[in-house]
Amino acid sequence: MQQFPCPWCGNRAEGEFRYAGDAGIDRPDRTVDDRAWAQYLHFRRNAKGAARELWIHSAGCGRWIVLFRDTVTHVVRGSEPMV
Q1: pLDDT band at 59; cut points 50, 70, 90
Q2: SS (H, E, C) the chain
Q3: Which of 12, 19, 50, 81, by CA, is between 20 and 30 Å from 62?
């Protein structure tokens, strides 16, 4: 099983975390039309390689982290607290 580095708890099993999406993608205002909302939800780049992802340490400290991971090799390069 893969290990993820929690900034508070140290290395933990991947199963303790839950994926929550790409980090750094701005959510649109509540005033956007349906087309803009659909664009945000369904039409993003799905690039291979280095990624910044949001994860929650749901079975541990319960805090949110940004995980730096390669989507091809699954190598984890580190993490930081979500701000």
Answers
A1: very high
A2: CCEEEECCCEEEEHHHCEEEEECCCCCCCCCCCHHHHHHHHHCCCCCCCEEEEEEECCCCCCCEEEEEEECCCCCEEEEEECC
A3: 50
